[in-house]
Amino acid sequence: MVLNWKDIDTVLLDMDGTLLDRHFDDHFWLEHVPRRYADKHGIALKDAKAMLISRFRSQENTLNWTDLDYWTEQLGLDIPLLKEEVDHLIAVHPFVVEFLLYLRQQRKAIYLVTNAHSKTLTLKMRKTRIGSYFDGIISAHDLGLPKEDAAFWPALASRISYDPERTLLGEDSETNLSTAAQYGIKYLIYVSRFSSALTPKPSANFSSIHYFSQLIPKEGSTGVDLAKIKMLPPDFI
């Protein structure tokens, strides 16, 4: 498929792993929270990790997965405060700002569409200062449905006006891309370099990029051949 920007009116972008480096989130939930939990209860770190990872996975694909208030109550830890302890790890992926500027120049409607909790959004928008690039920011918690639920996308259409046939979605979750495909969103982009700490692996099912610069056409062109971009090496710039 050739992505011709003249055929796209709306761009929906995920946050964690897509625009922002997921290394922060992975470190926070898999290292920092277990360490603080182990310290509080006087148990071994490896035991805390095993127990918490199991509890986290039990809520995967639900709103509880990203609900900071839920985990504060469940774990007896001030999760928003703990996030601030390691907020120096919050980072925007390379070329994200350039891509957002390109979209603004092309007069596209740009929406941040995320499963993140409102308290996470507040912290990350304050740290990254990218909020002003968007026409709107919608959290799954506002709609009462996670993006993993196929009902999310029609519910989103009740909040913002978008034509699925003329919409691009950028995501680091193949599950979320799949539910969007069920709704009919035409242009689906998988971000394989979701964490700076992990080696990118292209999707077998969706057009894959390492950086959003790969979606910006070369001068004099209006489109990008999606069939070619996933063959670029992990260190492509």
From TrEMBL:
GO terms for cellular component: cytosol. This is HAD superfamily hydrolase. It comes from Geotalea daltonii (strain DSM 22248 / JCM 15807 / FRC-32) (Geobacter daltonii). Keywords: Hydrolase. GO terms for molecular function: phosphoglycolate phosphatase activity. The lineage of its organism: Bacteria, Pseudomonadati, Thermodesulfobacteriota, Desulfuromonadia, Geobacterales. SUPFAM superfamilies: HAD-like. It comes from the Bacteria. Pfam families: Hydrolase. GO terms for biological process: DNA repair.
